[in-house]
Amino acid sequence: MGLEYTEQETAIALRAVASLGAIMSRFARWGVAGRVLTLTVHNITWPGRTLAVSLLASRLIHCLAATVWLSLPSAVAAAESWGQQVIVENKPGASTQIGAEYVAKAAPDGYTLLVSPEATFVVNPWLYSKQPYDPMKDFTPITGLVSISQSLVASPDLLAQTLPELIALAKKRPGELNYGTFGVGSTGHLNMEMLQSMAGVKLVAVHYKGATPALTDVMAGHIQMMFISTSSAIEPWKAGKLKLLAVGSRQRLPRFPELPTAAESGLAGFEAVSWFGLFAPGGTPRAVVELLNAEVRRVFKDPEFQEKVLTPNMFEPMVSSPEQFSSFIQSEAQKWGDVVRKAKVKLD
């Protein structure tokens, strides 16, 4: 089943990735006025024709309205500032493999780009024995975009108020406590497998067809806990419908400093976040990669973009150089490869 999100999470994720079009449309307005955003590579001016940006996300039907509303105005504005049309396409399916294959096999000319979650590059290679592309060789990393913190939430009835108390309870009752996931191999599943490995406890997985029914059952007390995006957990936590035991980010969240991290709660080094990055097909000209990277970095530094896009959606920016992003992906692939192997999870 692979990557799954609640409808709210998917809408947020699509807002993040659809912001790529907004980034392009703001190049001329945010800090680059007077510059012509084209370059010449081997006597070819880029961009010289329509750009296609493929987005990977699940639950397309539920979020179609949000996608169209967020993507199309941005694409139109981008066409005005770049002098070319920007087509934003949503290509979900097969745990992100359909859209990824489309971009991997596209011409490496800078006209087809990919906005993808981490699963494509650091999880799926370990879950599937064979893929229609090489995630490390068939893509050119441009930059990370945003990371989204995951949180460990629990039923109000659970006899634990903190993560250390949960670990102690699980050790007293091995194999008795359960947790929900939104599918085998999903982020919610693998985050909990990592927790079990690091904490030395044994929990029982209950796999759902999506995050929404799992979260509903946590609040109702039918299952005891799960990992879900912090943005999806905040409102029911504030309403007293569930306990929020720990956030998966490295540091406490500025908006909710009272929430402890899992790392400071006894699991040193634990980090559970989802992230999105910008990619091009392997072999894309370096000059094109550098232009895209530079302009994304410029927009992410803008206070207005931070205020209106990043902060309200609890997005943590992770823009970097292509080299830094590539190294990050390799590190993440090793981390999640270890988790998948220890948990013996396979999807084929």
Task: Give a structural overview.
The structure is a single chain. With 348 residues, the protein is an alpha/beta fold. The chain folds into two domains: 7-148 and 274-343, Bordetella uptake gene, domain 1 (D-Maltodextrin-Binding Protein, domain 2, 3-Layer(aba) Sandwich), CATH 3.40.190; 149-265, 3-Layer(aba) Sandwich (D-Maltodextrin-Binding Protein, domain 2), CATH 3.40.190.10. Helices cover 42% and strands 19% of the residues. The protein contains eleven helices and twelve strands. The strands form three sheets. Strands 3, 4, 5, 6, 9, 10, 11 and 12 form an eight-stranded mixed β-sheet that branches. 48% of the residues are buried.
Structural class: alpha/beta
Which stretches are low in confidence, meaning pLDDT under 50 for 5 or more residues running? 1-45, 57-82
Indicate the CATH class of the largest domain.
Answer: Alpha Beta
- Mean pLDDT, as a whole number? 79
Count of folded domains: 2
Keywords summarizing the entry:
single chain; 348 residues; alpha/beta; D-Maltodextrin-Binding Protein, domain 2; 2 domains; two-stranded antiparallel sheet; 12 strands; disordered N terminus
Layout of strands and helices, then pairs:
Layout: H1 7-25, E1 39-41, E2 44-46, E3 51-55, H2 60-82, E4 86-90, H3 97-104, E5 112-117, H4 119-127, E6 139-154, H5 163-172, E7 178-181, H6 187-199, E8 204-207, H7 211-220, E9 225-229, H8 230-238, E10 243-247, E11 273-281, H9 286-300, H10 303-310, E12 316-317, H11 322-343
Parallel strand pairs: 3-4, 3-5, 7-8
Antiparallel strand pairs: 1-2, 5-11, 6-9, 6-10, 6-11, 6-12
